[in-house]
Amino acid sequence: MIKVENLHKHFGGFHAVDGASIEIETGSITGLIGPNGAGKSTLFNVIAGVLPPTSGRVLMDGEDITGLKPHELFHKGLLRTFQIAHEFSSMTVRENLMMVPAGQSGEGLWSAWFRRGRIAQEERALARKADEVLEFLTISHVADEKAGNLSGGQKKLLELGRTMMVDAKIVFLDEVGAGVNRTLLNTIGEAIVRLNKERGYTFCVIEHDMDFIGRLCDPVIVMAEGKVLAQGKADEIMQNEAVIEAYLGTGLKNKMKAGANA
Ligand SMILES: Nc1ncnc2c1ncn2[C@@H]1O[C@H](COP(=O)(O)OP(=O)(O)O)[C@@H](O)[C@H]1O
Ligand SMILES: [Mg+2]
């Protein structure tokens, strides 16, 4: 579905992504791991149109999508989750979801509100859709809660929920597990697997929790110093000498332990 060819992203003289080539198969949950500073988030940001690449190409189903803007990629079904913006935190969870089809596609916030007021029928359909999404994610009980009052994990579920308000094909998740307790991380994992199996979503997931990556992801791509170091099944990757080497200093074992205890 996604093919990244010899991608470079330089910040001044610093090569954050240094000739990375990856492929994400349709229907996969592909993991992306690597030590801090490996260039994972930068690679995501280039694929998702947040940053222009220095050189290289990104293809989606064979079409060159390099340098397209996030809202253009959104219309193609390529989504990157992002944190709930400050101005949305005082809106309810349901309202946050209802804003997505208009708000995230690049339409202005006010015209979206205006449209909502004028077209009551469309609004009811959106509210129904939002309620379905909340039920799917098992957070119906917080539908009328202000988004700013949610726990860290519930916010992550809401971020995932926003991808369900539109016809997403591929979703990029950057550190879904950061600051999330074990129970909610499992809920997020289950939601990802169900979206993959039941709705055909393809995922690419950056995560430090090796247990989470091991259970969900096949294949796993390892990045270090802006380059792709290895790709394979999670258990093979963990045995790979070059991968273990790349993690030395930060300590793969410590990370796995930290993941297991989180
Ligand atoms: N906007 C930027 N300007 C300068 N350097 C950046 C910028 N964004 C990221 N970097 C640097 O690029 C490297 C890779 O960062 P990042 O992609 O966030 O790594 P990861 O997500 O793997 O931890 C880091 O050394 C980081 O400091
Ligand atoms: Mg990162």
- The CATH homologous superfamily of the largest domain is termed P-loop containing nucleotide triphosphate hydrolases
Q: What CATH architecture label of the largest domain applies?
A: 3-Layer(aba) Sandwich
**Average pLDDT reading:** 88
Instruction: Spell out which ligands are present.
Output: adenosine-5'-diphosphate, magnesium ion
Number of domains: 2
Spell the H/E element sequence. EEEHEEHEHHHHEHEHEEHHH
Q: In terms of structural class, how would the helical and strand content be classed?
A: alpha/beta
Give the C-level CATH assignment of the largest domain: Alpha Beta
Assembly of the depicted chains: single chain
Q: What is the rounded Rg? A: 19 Å
Percent helix range = 40-55%
Short description:
This protein has helices at 40-47, 70-75, 93-103, 109-118, 120-136, 152-163, 182-199, 210-216, 234-239, 241-247, 252-261; strands spanning 2-11, 14-24, 29-33, 55-60, 63-64, 78-80, 170-174, 202-206, 220-224, 227-232.
